[in-house]
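User: Hey, my collaborator sent me this sequence without any context and asked if I could get a structure. I don't really work with proteins. Can you help?
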Amino acid sequence: MGPAARLTALLAVLALRAGDPTGAAARGDTFSALTSVARALAPERRLLGLLRRYLRGEEARLRDLTRFYDKVLSLHEDTATPVSNPLLAFTLIKRLQSDWRNVVHSLEASENIRALKDGYEKVEQDLPAFEDLEGAARALMRLQDVYMLNVKGLARGVFQRVTGSAVTDLYSPRRLFSLTADDCFQVGKVAYDMGDYYHAIPWLEEAVSLFRGSYGEWKTEDEAGNVSCALSLSREFLLYSPDNKRMSRNVLKYEKLLAESPTRVVAEAVIQRPNVPHLQTRDTYEGLCQTLGSQPTHYQIPSLYCSYETNSSPYLLLQPIRKEVIHLEPYVVLYHDFVNDLEAQKIRGLAEPWLQRSVVASGEKQLPVEYRISKSAWLKDTVDPLLVTLDHRIGALTGLDVQPPYAEYLQVVNYGIGGHYEPHFDHATSPTSPLYRMKSGNRVATFMIYNAALFWWNLHRSGEGDGDTLHAGCPVLVGDKWVANKWIHEYGQEFRRPCSSSPED
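Assistant: No problem. I've predicted the 3D structure and written it out in structure-token form, which is a compact way to encode the shape of the chain:
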């Protein structure tokens, strides 16, 4: 059965789960930074406490109900006629008039569930919105694509790349955590709602497989066609959910279609993986993410070198930094151990309270986009003396003026579930870009810190953008990723990096 047929059949599964699962309308950004995801643990711990109290209350209530049941059952098991005893007759009438009413309309049960609902409503505003669920599902699909992960493996909690007969473990979690049928269904439904059938089919098929496994194997009658297979699946799920009216309507619809055209055949179409216009270098980008890139060794290119860098600066004279030239055109330099672990932790701590969804320049506006999933914070050097120290260190190494307005404030970024930044330029490519609002020209250079630090020139000396500086942030497969950027602008650097009319400079 081809892709279109499988999708038609899997629509029968979707009918079980019609409608928005939450109804949350507010925009959610929890998924876009891992630090925000971690904060979501706190309200869940509070909910666990509420659920524990609810369970204890219900357990006590159920114990009372069990005692009531056992007592009444023992009376009915007595072969003698119990109503001949006036005491038993009285208690029978009392039970039927009063006790059973209390069982059915238990105030204690209502109080228990009310307490749980009240507690939930108090933390509800701190919970992820429905958009977070969608964003997390899209993140799983992104990891699936970029790292060529197998859906069945992911459902089992295994991060494996399967290419032909070769299986590569990309990550081995200490504790295996598998997805449920409902989890897989949710990912597939998000893809389906976006019209992305390429991803919807494997996730929904895995949901069906897991769902069947939990309810026992049941063979479909006919796997030979689009409509007939959909009818078989609909009938199958109707066994598990006999009161589902939507599913019943599906059965009638598919039966009618088959009656009208018993040999009905729907043309198959190859469902392609969706792409978006802004990502024209997908194969190269994903190939680099999968292989961690490639870097020539120094003996292959003798002009690449390592040194202890002072840049003739008194600031670095007693504590030079290890410099590695890793590319010449464009010129890219790596500074090893630019910040230590304590400094990195301090920067993260300063940024975390101010993190907001990252944006990109779109025309004259700055907007959040799907091809950049992260949260960012901008830190002025007045926030903490450490930021002043960083500016001095960057200025000494680069020889550039890194003070506003000739440079932007330090941007600190935390990447969320599958967080990434697809291929992009740091410099503005449009004269209407919001980057020019600083009135200090374009971004001439980038200094990017991740314990080590990378430095490169975004512009040629002529002021034209360097097309070879296209770069990206690969999706985070597991764990946390933080980076900090210092973007340096053209103005203020006239005597530090003189202009040139030659396009080669």
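In plain terms: The mean pLDDT is 85. You can pass these tokens on to your collaborator as they are.
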